[in-house]
TrEMBL record:
This is Putative endonuclease. Keywords: Endonuclease, Hydrolase, Nuclease. GO terms for biological process: DNA damage response. It comes from the Bacteria. Residues 24-100 form the GIY-YIG domain.
Amino acid sequence: MLSNTLNLSKLPSVYLLEKDKLPNDAAIYFVSDSQGQVLYVGRTVNLVKRWREHHRFNQLKRLNRKTRISISWLTCSNDINTLSNLENEFINSYKPPLNWSKVVSPVRRITPVEIALQQSLQQLAKFNTMIFGFDPIADEEPPTLYLLYPVYGQRGLSGSIRSLLKKINKKVSALKWKEYHTEPKSFGKFGYWKTEYNGIRIDLTPVQGLVHFMDDAVRRTVAGVELMAFSREQLETLLANVPEEEISGLGALEDDPIPIEFVTQSQ
């Protein structure tokens, strides 16, 4: 994939307020802040014409007062299918936060993906979320960290979890949680969630009886945030009768799979 090899710092670029210097080429363009974070990705058959009346310009101009915004571009064929496919590839790769925000929304703060992840995990820890294990083997699926949250019969924390993650999703951030499955209302309407950070998937699942494992839990960190975790002995006991092909490389978490520095920032 082109997105895996492209070095944005090597692309031609201009500052936002110098957009009239853009060429009239067909291109994929990248809007970045002074730290190099990609804020927006788009496509066009004529770059300078596109930016004369770009729907994001006023929004970006306000943001430019806080961090210098630049536009870089990758010259491409003007074939609309080629442009569309490349745009989707780069959006999926960089997950630019403004591609998911409303144009009318003033950008007061862009939350770095690391901070949005840490805020998510901090709140999940308050709901007694536990680390079940980590599967580092990247076959057809990415390396996956499995988190569990407690439910009690048809009662549980699913509504609170849902509110929390939807609140995180409202932030102008590249981190987004997806509810990929919801139990029927008769079973409690519990939600199953997932997100990805830096190639690692985080899967969050509701589990009955999780409270019985908490007394013997150990403490482990994910992205610098401490959570309860299944010990190696607990996990080995639970998986003892599970066929090996169903386990893959799943094991108890020992080291932080996302070793980033913890940053304190208001919610």
